[in-house]
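Quick one: structure for this chain?
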Amino acid sequence: MNLTPKEIVSYLDRYIIGQKEAKKTIAIALRTRYRRMQLPEEIQEEITPKNILMIGSTGVGKTEISRRLAKMMKVPFVKVEASKYTEVGFVGRDVESMIRDLVLNSIALVKEEKEEQSREKIENYVLNRIVEKLVPPLPEGASEAKKADYQKLLESMEKRVQSGELDDKMIEIDIDPSVQVESVDTNLPPEMAKAQESIAKIFTVFNKDASKKEMSIKDAKVHLKNEATNKLFDATSINAEAIRRAENGGIIFLDEIDKIAISEKSSGRNDPSKEGVQRDLLPIVEGSTVNTKYGSIKTDHILFIAAGAFHVSKPSDLIPELQGRFPLRVELEPLSEESLYAILTQTKNSLLKQYTALLEVEGLKLVFEDEAIRAIAKLSHKANEQTEDIGARRLHTVLEKVLEDISFEADEYAGKEYRITAQIVHEKLDIVVENDDLSRYIL
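Got it. Here's what it folds into:
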């Protein structure tokens, strides 16, 4: 998507309040990637992405900024926690698995686009396969009158299948073995994944009963859609396109990177594999080739965005080589009371809109008075100051506490309006927020 940095920031402003510097830095990084792709190939190879280190407490928007951008730009994106990885030789996930996850995400993205382009073909395939199970074929030599009646029956059955009227009806479907072998663990090394896939195929061939399966029409629609996708599209070309996109447009959000930093304060409790994880990360971030079951992928031009609170450690506690691979650093600001109020009132899909929509399902019209919203923001900010600062996530816990009773008794208010006033907010929260021990456990 060809958007200028200003347009990218404008888009983010609809979902994330504040954090102008972080938005600006990432917008420039993304635009630079677009600029690079417009250059001759020999220059493209020389321009490496400027990886970003985001520093800030939990709940201030680090992950949300990256996730929204990836969704808007329609680029492969994965979020991983650095603390979940272990050094080679230790039991646990190896760092290369994040690249395999990125390739999987890219394949899903390419498939989704191709499915959208061929939606009509896929829908017709699914419909025809289901209808042929519901309507027996017309005998040869049937009269014109019977042919006309048969055509009407087919059209009627197609409409019933499309409307979902027959979704609960059970039918027997012929299973394509190639669709069945998608449950292989993709986090295995490529050689083991291929071996597991081959064994699964062998069992499918020898198990004759596996070629037919009884399922509801609703489930059959999902299975046949996958089958149609496999038949319509060449898997090799999809995988090649997915790897190309992952290499040139992929984003890996590496969260909790501060948890693998080795600080003097926590050296006594250090996991001995922390520095090992950093050293294993280094070649991937610097640029290397990782083998996956779908093909080899170069990591040279993948954009890495690392994030951490760095309460106990500092960015300088990372090994120097890894620090050097994150040249752009941006510190996110803690959320003020006014920021929390803006998050509740100005974001596109705010929590207030979500709760209002949820209770509308019960026929209850929920109305938040402005003074109540300000009280929620004020008490949330106070709770963050008194206990652990969890940023905007505090709004979730506070709103759940405020709406707990009305949500439980919603059926009694069907067809009515319920106003959340400042008085209700204070009645629910004042005692909890003022009592430090209670706020720790309740909020």
